[in-house]
Design a protein that fits this description.
319 residues, alpha+beta, Nuclear Transport Factor 2, Chain: A, OB fold (Dihydrolipoamide Acetyltransferase, E2P), 3 domains, 5-stranded mixed barrel, 6 helices, 20 strands, elongated
Amino acid sequence: MNCPHRPSTVGQTITTIIICVLLAACTQCPDDKEFIRDMYEKSLYEDYSFLEKYCSKSLLAKLSEEYDYEGEGYAVWKFRSGAQDGPSKEHVMTSIEDEGNGWFRYTAIDMGIAFTKRIKISHKDGRNMIEDVVDVYKKIAPLPSGIDLNNLQDCTVPAVFTSDNFNWMGGNLTMTVYSQDLYDAVEVSQMQVGDTIIYDGKPMVINTIAEEQGGININGGLDEGGCCLAGNEGGTYVARNRDDHATYTKLGKAEVALAENFVIIDCGDFPDEPYDTIRTGQKLYIESMKDYKKDFFELNTRVTIENGMITEIKRHWIP
C-alpha cells in the first residue's frame, strides 16, 4: 500500500525541529559565568537600569534597604569588596565556581583587594536574573604547627614542664608542647570586616581593621578587647597579648628521651645577667634550682630535639 503523505509529514517534522532549535538558540540565556564576569568586570552593577532589569524584586528591595545615604538608591557595593580604598586600581574577576542550584562563588580583586561573594542566578524570559548576592566570610587561623607529637624527631618547640617532670632513671622528660600562633601574611592582607580570626584559641568576629606602627589592630586592639598582630619573619604575622608576648596553642603532652650530653642554657634573674650553660651535672643543676625557677613556660622555654632526643633546653629572660 502506498503512503503518499509520508514524505511531506517527515519534511514537516524536520522543519519543525529546525525551527525549534533556532528559537531555543535565540532565546537561550547568556552563559551564567560569562554574565557574572561581565557584571563585575564592566561594573554593570553600578548602573541602576541594569539592576532593575536583571535583579529580582527581593534583591532590589534588599539593596534598597541597605542603601544608607540620603534619598533613594541601591547598595551597589554589595557586588564588590565594600572597601573605600585600596592599594591599586586592579579590578578583575579571578575565579567563578558553580556550586549548584543556581549558586555561584566568585572571587575577584577590587582596587587591589581580593574578596569572595556568592551569587544566585535564575533564568526568566530568556535572560539571566540575579536572585541574591551574599558575603563569604573567611576564617583566619594560625598556621599549622607542623609538629607531630607522636614523632618528634628534628625540631625546636615551646614547652611547659617542671623540675619534677625529669625522669633521670629513665632518661626522659615529659613536657606539654605548644606552637606559637603565626598567621600567613597573605591571608592577613586579605582579611576584611565580617571575617573571623582565631585569636588565643577563641574565634573573634572582625568589626574593624587598622594598621598601626607596623602591626594591625583588630576591633580596636588589645585595649578595647580586640587583638593585635605584629609583623614577623618568613611572611607571617604573630599574635600579641597584653604583655606583648606571643600567643600559643597547646598541642599536647610528649615524653622525649634526653640525649646523654644534652645542654641546658638558662637565663639569670635579670636581663643583664649572663646565661648559665650546663654541659655536665644537669641533674644536680635542675634539682638545686630555687623554687621560683623550677617551672618552665612556653613563653620563655625552647626544647631542641634531634633524631628523637632532646639535645638542648634553653630558657630566655622575659619581663
